[in-house]
Amino acid sequence: MGSDGAEPGSVRPGGRTARVRTAVLRAAGDALAERGFAHLDLADIARRAEVGKTTVYRRWGTATGLVADLLADMAEQSLPRTETGSLLGDLRANARLVQRTLADPRQGALFKAVIAAATCEAKTAEALHHFYDVRVTEWAPCVQQAIDRGEVPEGTDTHEVIRAVSAPLYYRLLTSGGPLDEDAADQAAAAAATAAAAGAYLRGKELG
Amino acid sequence: MGSDGAEPGSVRPGGRTARVRTAVLRAAGDALAERGFAHLDLADIARRAEVGKTTVYRRWGTATGLVADLLADMAEQSLPRTETGSLLGDLRANARLVQRTLADPRQGALFKAVIAAATCEAKTAEALHHFYDVRVTEWAPCVQQAIDRGEVPEGTDTHEVIRAVSAPLYYRLLTSGGPLDEDAADQAAAAAATAAAAGAYLRGKELG
DNA sequence: CGATTAATGAAACTGGAGTTCCGTTATGGG
DNA sequence: CCCATAACGGAACTCCAGTTTCATTAATCG
């Protein structure tokens, strides 16, 4: 009569359970990149991961649930940030990192797929938001340094500046379909740096 | 033997055929907004449209095919553009229009859903790109006017400036989940106007 | 190391998404 | 107005994504 206990995989998370999760998440990433979110098939993922499909359904339940876990895993793998000494240089480094990621066939397709999945389920959306929170928080300090150097006005929302760099690149990826080349990255970085220096990202209120 | 002829609905596009298309596209929009792309069910759409499900499968085939047609229909319904006399004013009007659309529960959900669908099928992606091309082309003249007035340097990519206004709003909608309020719209407009005036969107090459 | 039981996985099962068949409706041309 | 047939729609059918069952394997605790 007691409760059903916790989620499968939480009581004995070591050994096989961990290996299964790794294999399934890897297979899920491959399948998402190759086939897209709409054509995702959990049985196919189980086959790729050399795991019983029952296991995949039991532990993750739905395609969006699996993507949510994949996003949680992706959020943990952080890339080191480079520092160049100027805001424009730092933003450009960030823009080119994002651009290279989205322009890469596998990674670009993967990001499209996880974003598509996030539009279909609140829990997956939350996982996606967390993933970007982590990435943005990693880069925000370079804007703070620019504030300290006097390049950017006090009171600027540092996170918003970082998001402003990525936004046009994601817009191209998803809606315009324009080329995601280095020029696009540099343009995004330059626009964000210029706007930030002019105080366009001051916290709390917009420019008059 | 001879060819199979054209797509169903192309030989006798009037009367019932047109009514069916209208009813199905309306039902598809409702279903996408309410349930999201992943939970889309063509039989359910047929029921809502009071149409045989055979008809929906025959004419549109797949969920992504139906969304592609919906996007073609949406591209034809254009909204009038307001003019304020200044670039910032015009961009702000555009930004608030986009913001209000995305913040609206039904429209916001619908846009998320069509973007999700577009990530899954090349034809649907093309339809989405065309939709945004139409919208951007409608607003680009206000940037040209700013160039003519001397507010923005010659050689600026007018379409890119318009896209720069929308990009941060779509970024919030899809990845950050931050509030889509008027301040967000005004900030996007101000940042784009500032960057455009500084020559960040010059065609062909980025700033040094 | 051995007992307990969480977690896995093969196989059989089920429901509904998508298809096929064919009779009915009504469009567009003459 | 009438005919040929494009397009629709109900019903029966198929097939596979997702579920259930239960035996097997191996993670954790003592």
Automatic annotation (TrEMBL), chains A, B:
Alphabetically ordered keywords of this record: DNA-binding, Transcription, Transcription regulation
PROSITE patterns, A to Z: HTH_TETR_2 (PS50977)
InterPro entries per the UniProt record, alphabetical: Homeodomain-like_sf, HTH-type_TetR-like_transc_reg, HTH_TetR, Tet_transcr_reg_TetR-rel_C_sf, TetR_C
Pfam families named in the record: TetR_C_11, TetR_N
Molecular function (Gene Ontology), one example: transcription cis-regulatory region binding
Keyword flag Transcription regulation: yes
DNA-binding region, residue range(s): 41-60
Top-level taxon of origin: Bacteria
All copies of domain HTH tetR-type, residue ranges: 18-78
UniProt xrefs under PANTHER family: HTH-TYPE TRANSCRIPTIONAL REGULATOR RUTR (PTHR30055), TETR-FAMILY TRANSCRIPTIONAL REGULATOR (PTHR30055:SF148)
Protein known as: Transcriptional regulator
Species whose genome carries this gene: Streptomyces minutiscleroticus
Source organism phylogeny: Bacteria, Bacillati, Actinomycetota, Actinomycetes, Kitasatosporales
